[in-house]
Design goal:
This protein is an all-alpha fold. The chain has helices spanning 3-9, 19-41, 44-55, 61-66, 76-93. The radius of gyration is 24 Å and the shape is elongated. The protein has one domain. 70% of the residues lie in helices and 0% in strands. It starts with a helix and ends with a helix.
Length: 94
């Protein structure tokens, strides 16, 4: 079954993009790629990964090698995040 057959099932028929739609799609894709490259270039992606690992109580890859064989992780970041969640819940619940 082709895409055209699938569209006909819904009564849409064949879809053609206009030049404006094509240009808009190019613009959106370029903007997305620029934002993604900027996020990686400025280190935001690495920071987000580091924070996610801290919240999940996981060592960073470079730290995991130093503490090989030790299964204890002090989850201070996760503890602080849970405490902030509780405070926010109490504050906004009032």
């Amino acid at each position: 079954m082709t895409d055209t057959d699938t569209l006909k099932e819904f009564g849409i028929g064949q879809v053609f993009n206009t030049e404006i739609q094509d240009e808009l799609a190019k613009y959106v894709r370029k903007s997305y790629d620029d934002a993604k490259e900027h996020k990686q270039r400025t280190g935001v992606s690495a920071l987000l990964l580091r924070n996610l690992r801290a919240k999940l109580c996981q060592y960073q890859p470079e730290d995991a090698e130093m503490v090989a064989g030790i299964d204890v992780y002090v989850g201070l970041a996760a503890l602080k995040q849970r405490a902030a969640d509780i405070l926010a819940y109490r504050y906004y619940r009032q």
